[in-house]
Amino acid sequence: MLPINIIHEEDTFLVIEKPVGVVVNRADSVEGETIQDWMENKFSIFNPSTSSGQVFQFSNKEEEEFINRSGVVHRLDKETSGLLILAKTVEAFQALKNQFKQRKTAKEYLALVHGIPVPKTGTINLPIKRNILNRHKFCVDVDGKMARSAYQIDHIYKDQFNNLYSIIRVNIFTGRTHQIRVHLSHLGYPIVSDSLYLGKRLKQDLTWCPRVFLHAAKLSFLHPLSGERLEFESKLPGDLNRALGKLI
Asked: Which residues are known to be catalytic?
C-alpha cells in the first residue's frame, strides 16, 4: 500500500496527507496506485461483492457514487501534496461533498513563486478553461469557468544570483483544475518548478527544487455529523523544505 500519513481518523471520515506524485482518482490513463486504490485496500466497504460472486446492488444513487468514488470527496493535482478528506460512510460523503459545493470549506495552499506579487495581498477573479493547443494545460479565457483565488505574501527570498521569490498563502473559493498554477502564471508570478506553466526557467528551477512548489497546508470544514468546525494543518514536506533552505 501507498505510504499514506493519516493525521486524523474517525468512524465516518479521515484526513490524510497526500504525497506528491500520487493521483487521487483512478482513470484508464493513470499508471500506479491511486488514493482510490489505497482506500479500497484499506476499507472493505469499497469492495462491494458477495461471497457467492453476485453483483452488489446499490440501495440508491448516493451509495453508488460513494462506492464508485471510494469515498474520495475532493481531489488534489498529482503534482500537489497536502491535506485530503476521505469519507468512510455514505452520509459523511454526501455531507462533505455538499460543503465543497456550498463553499463551506476553507483551503489554504503554500506556494513559492518567482518575483514579488503586486499588490502583496489580493484576490484573483479570472475564468479558466482547457488549453485547446495542449489538452494537459489550462489557461485564462473569457469563455472559461469563473475561478477565484485570494493570496497574501508570507515571506520574500532571493537566491545566490539575487533573483527574488515569494512564499505566498493562497485560499481558493472555486476548485478549477490547476487553478492556482494558472492564475499565478497568468499574472507573471509562476510557481517554482512548475513543468506546465513556468516556461524557460524550469530547467534552472529543477536544479534546486525537484517539483512544483505547491502544498495544501490548511483545511477547514464542518464535522459531517456534529457540525463542529474542524481545522487541520500540514507542514511543508521535506523536499520543499530542503528547496526553501537553499534560498536566503
From this structure: 77
